[in-house]
Write a structure and sequence with these properties.
By secondary structure, this protein is α/β, with parallel strands linked by helices. It is built from eleven helices and 13 strands.
Length: 384
Amino acid sequence: MKIGFIGLGKLGKEAAEVMSEAGHEVHGYDIKPIFHTKFEIKYNLKDLCEDKEIIFIAIPTPHHPDYDGSKATSHLEPKDFDYSIVKNILEELNEYTTKQQLVVLISTVLPGTTRKELIPLINNFRFIYNPYLIAMGTVKEDMINPEMVIIGTETGHYTGDAKLLIDFYKTFTTENVRYEIGTWDDAEAIKIFYNTFISVKLSLVNMIMDVAEKNGNMNTDVITGALGRSSKRITSSAYMKAGMGDGGSCHPRDNIALRWLAKDLGLGYDLFDSIIESREKQAFNIARKLMDLSDEHALPIVILGESYKPGVSLVDGSYSKLIGDYLWNYNLSYDQIIGPAIYLLGHMGVYKDTIFPEGSVILDPWRERNKPDTIYYGGKNNLM
């Protein structure tokens, strides 16, 4: 098929590569200069749209930088995402498309946004809302083997356009992929509540870790392991490992936007604010532990793992940065061995065997480093 792809950032470029590697003729466009060898780059939307059967849009719906989750936000006024970039693209596409072309938006928006704010801008092409469940660092794997593919149509019915999109995805996804079809609003809600469900799980297991740390006679991993294996009423063991909190460019900011939605809809309560506040209080508890250790040993603090997860360089919504924000009056650095110091192991599975300078104290919130220099955050490792 002839495919156009608008937005070749951290998600779009690799998604377009997967489509190209599956044998489709892919042309890409981005406002930033990009060189690529796996598919052809077009330098304006008119050329990008010409003769395309499906045009994907993967452009940002950002928050103000203060709302990315790497600093405390629970005290700030709730804000919706900024849809101006998406709106501008949709309006411009009307000039270069026809009713024979299908435009597919994959960017995250709040429930109700497509119907209320985006559809009124569209008058010259067909449209589907199709948000992706993709994590940075595993974009291609998540494209090929997704947990589900979310497709939103106006009425929620299995339309010809939905079939066209599903047939396209079947050219590169694994067998037995689950397709969830609903209204535009259903699709918006599945995506954003999927993300916030993960935030809830992480907030819960990290609360258990805080209780274990205070109690002193609990093994965090015994408790979360038992809960994670309870598949009858608790859905799965995923995200049931207590440690560093939720991070990245999606989950924290999604909860921030959902705060705005709760207020806008007049729900009368704000669960999302509680999720955000618990995330921040849990980060402060770890920061407080680091402060106590630094004061006790007269040592600087080093956080290993500044990015929001191992294997990526992005610090958007980094939990390590959030912890660091509470340590503003301490001698703090990231991702370097500087000599004797208080070291926080911010990434799971990375520093288990690292040799630290003599006199260092290692704080392990994952409870996986079995060394004499290491203190576990979250209670004892083995109860006798």
